[in-house]
Amino acid sequence: MDFTLLGCDFTSAPTRRKPIVLAVGRAERGRVVLDAIERFESLDAWGERLRAPGPWVGGFDLPFGLPRELVQALGWPEDWRACMAHYAALPRAAIREAFAAFCQARPVGGKFAHRATDGPAGSSPSMKWVNPPVAFMMHAGVPRLIAAGAHLPGLLDGDPQRVALEAYPGLLARSVLGATSYKSDDKGKQTGERLIARKTLINALENGQAPLLQAAGLRLRLTHAQRDDLADDASGDRLDAVLCLLQAAWALQRHRSGDARWGLPAFDPLEGWIVGS
User: Fold this and answer.
1) What's the pLDDT score for residue 109?
2) Which of 272, 276, 277 is nearest to 63 (CA)?
3) CB count in 10 Å sphere of residue 271
4) Contact call for residues 8 and 61 (beta carbons, < 8 A)
5) Which of 34, 24, 276 is nearest to 171 (CA)?
6) What residue segments make up the domains of the chain, in order of their start?
7) What does pLDDT average to over the chain?
8) d(Cα 197, Cα 202) in Å, to the nearest integer?
9) Tens-place pLDDT, residues 36-80
10) Which of 15, 138, 217, 261 is deepest in the core (most CB within 10 A)?
11) How many Cβ atoms are within 10 Å of 135's Cβ, its own excluded?
């Protein structure tokens, strides 16, 4: 079965200036070909796109679960589907209040609860509501993935021809650049140094030099115009979508090799796991 690859750079409040960005591509003899970049200015439009017939497998840059420690402390349901239904029903102000109270009761240096995947992935805790507001990204995105009937391996049985995986672009980017920043939404921070970093990262992806790609023998294939477009996007949104696309490509390769879990290890079915971490 030939799966289309998707990579999604997500925002919980999309606008024309800051849309949800979806990279669309395919795997072809060790090459990951970028076919298109799609943009969605509303959550409803993005949700409708998820209903498009498969087969596709996508990497989505938003958390799929909360830390078990947090869920237990708040007395929320410990079944993933029930927990997400409870979470989706809460207004964001109530979420912020509950999470802030949890943090306030904890010592300095350990305010946030973490999922097991945060360590190997280097990701922000999924309960963060600012800088970045990943808790609200989950609040906006996961209910729409559920409503679309997507299959979330290890979390939710859905349409096996529309497979959604939690991705994190920083996982690939840091494996190449370390702590060097390559993007910013702040125009004052969109520097030449960050442009050089994006070009360095793109070059590494095209040469398959990121460790995750090296292990799988995968390389990104771009046209000259696509390469320039990714480098010129100082926000990094399009490049982040492509990084998620590559994580989906890695998972697809694992699936084609007989891994029914799409490369995911055994993990806590309440918390979820970031693909490739």
Assistant:
1) 85
2) 272
3) 24
4) yes
5) 276
6) 4-63+163-257, 66-114
7) 97
8) 9
9) 999 999 999 999 999 999 999 999 999 999 999 999 999 999 999
10) 138
11) 24
